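Archive transcription. Copying these from loose printouts into the bound notebook so they stop getting lost. Printout 1 of 2:
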Amino acid sequence: MMILLAVDDTPASHLAIKEVARSPWPVGTQVEVLTVVEHSPVWAMSESVEEAYHTSRALIDSATAQLRAAGLTAQGTVATGDPKSVILERAVALHPHLIVTGSHRVSALTHFFLGNVATHTLRHAACSVAVVRPRPDPEAANRRLLLATDGSPYSEAAAHALASRPWPAGTEVRVLSVVEVILPTMHALFEPPFVDSGEVKKLRAEAMARAQNAVAAAEAILEPKGLEVTESVSVLLDGTKDVILQEAKDWAADWIFVGSHGRQGAERILMGSTSESIAAQAVCSVEVVRSR
């Protein structure tokens, strides 16, 4: 597995480095640590470009040392330019399975995530992207992993990504399927009790069946890996984001795994809505999975 770990000298990035070092990865996983020095007029008011390079090099050396100590193969790169472009360009050259970032605010050193760099990466990267946040118990070896699925091929890819990691004993997985009841357009014009009509009840039953099938499909992928799996099914008349975020918060999840798109693929792209919102708003880490 190849991981591109994009960092700057902020607490969020240092947390991401530690989480990558602590997390279980397939044998032979390689990590490239990337930091970007962005040329800016701010240099005239603070440190020189040379000082920025020195600081960035020290960051890379520290990160690779931590990762190697954890048994990972790691190397580092200091690049210059627009971080939004550099990350994606490096990903094109490297073909990583996963890009990992911290959940950043503005970086004092490089303004690394100024201009929605993380959002840009989520939207445009060809591979999966993980946004790291603090875990409730950072020293715990086991994890609480929430897999959000709607039964689509994208959700199946998320299940396979989760199942591919050598999670330690005691890791818990909750499979959550939140399927929207899509009403015919004309029904939106009516008030209850019309929405409790026989036709709507039929649509709700069909949605429940889809949710149950989605959970069963995910369990079939996860359980052979020896993971402890529980299930949760929700069927809504509106969006899914809030349910997933609330479930993760209530359950104290460490990670959310979610596919990049929904059941109808390009016709109902979740990036920019559900997946992106979850990555931006979750209280825990989020991995948005794209199939390769």
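Printout 2 of 2:
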Amino acid sequence: MIISFKDLEVYKEAYDLAIIVNKNVNKLPLFEKNDLGSQLRRASKSVPSNIAEGWAKRQFEKQFKLHLNSAIGLCNEMEVHLSMTRDLGFWKKDFCDSLIKRYILLGGKIVNLQKNRKTY
């Protein structure tokens, strides 16, 4: 049973990913911590935030879709930042690839939540 946004699978996955990303930002070179690190922190934290805000406004279809569309866009943004982090050699390839795969799957699950909002 879903009582709050915290019960949503997409929220749990987005939150877990944000924690993983934020714990690893300190492994970036000093010159990237304020640039790429800031982008990684901001975008990763915004995915679960947008899911939570969208869920609160789910009775208003436009608002619900707006926030979930933002979360989907942020998943895409994370793919770019993680690819850059990998390709610049800042984090291990396998680690980045696994996070990218999880963000791709998460984006698809958010699309499904959008389409099936009336069942919740």
